[in-house]
Amino acid sequence: HIPHGFYEKQLKEYFSQFGRVTKVRLSRSKKTGKSKHYAFLEFGSAEVAAIAAGAMDGYMLLSQKLAARVLGKEEVHPDLFKGANRVFKKVPWGNIERERHNRARTPAGEERRVRQAVERDQRRQQRIAKAGIEYEYEGLAAVVPKKAKKTKFED
After folding, report:
1. Which residues fall within 8 angstroms of residue 66, CB to CB, at 6 or more apart?
2. Which residue blocks in the chain are alpha helix, DSSP H?
3. Using CA atoms, how far apart are residues 111 and 96, in angstroms rounded to an integer?
4. Could you give the 3-state DSSP secondary structure of residue 26?
5. Residue pair 28/36 in contact by the 8 Å Cβ criterion
6. C-alpha closest to that of 20 among 54, 45, 51, 57
7. For this UniProt entry, which segments traverse the membrane (predicted)?
8. Is the separation of the CB atoms in 2 and 66 below 8 Å?
9. φ, ψ dihedrals at 107, nearest 5°
C-alpha cells in the first residue's frame, strides 16, 4: 500500500532510519511506468529487517496503511531484485510509435501494405457473404491501380 509519490529514492531514504538498505525494488507497470503500490526492500541484516517490518506494519503513511512483513529465504524468488537500485527511466512509447508510423516506406514495403489491405478486404467480403448478407460494394482491389507490366519492344 505504498502511496503515490513515494518511489525508490524516498523508500530508501525513509527505511534507512532502521539500518542499511542494500536493495530496493518498487513494482511498476510495464506499460505506463506507474507504481503498482508495493515494493521489496533488502536490509543489511535480518534483525534490522524484522525491526523495520514490525515498526512499519499498520503504519499510516500519506493516508495509506502500510502492510510490512519479512519474507523467508524460501519465499524470495531468485529474480526478485533483478533491476533493483536502478533509477526508473520512462520509455517514450508515444514518440517511438509516432516515428514508426510516420517513417518513409520503401516501394516494396508500400506494395506489401497495399496487398495486405486488399487481402483483408477480400476476407471481409467473404465473411459478409458467408453470413448471408447481400451487400455489394466496390472493394479495394478495384480502387488500387494495377501494376504496370513491362513491355519489351523489338527493334
Report:
1. 1, 2, 56, 57, 58, 59, 60
2. 8-15, 46-56, 93-102, 107-130, 140-143
3. 24
4. strand
5. yes
6. 45
7. none
8. yes
9. -55, -40
Q: Write phi, then psi, for 140 (nearest 5 degrees).
A: -65, -30
For 62-108, write each residue's pLDDT tens digit: 888 888 889 888 888 888 888 788 777 888 888 999 999 999 989 88
Kind of pairing between the strands at 35-43 and 60-61: unpaired
- Supply the mean pLDDT for the chain: 86
Sign of the four-CA dihedral 142, 147, 148, 149: negative
What residue has cell string 500519506?
A: 62
pLDDT tens-digit profile of 106-126?
988 888 988 899 999 999 999
Neighbours of 41 (CB within 10 A): 23
C-alpha dihedral sign at 10, 81, 1, 15: negative
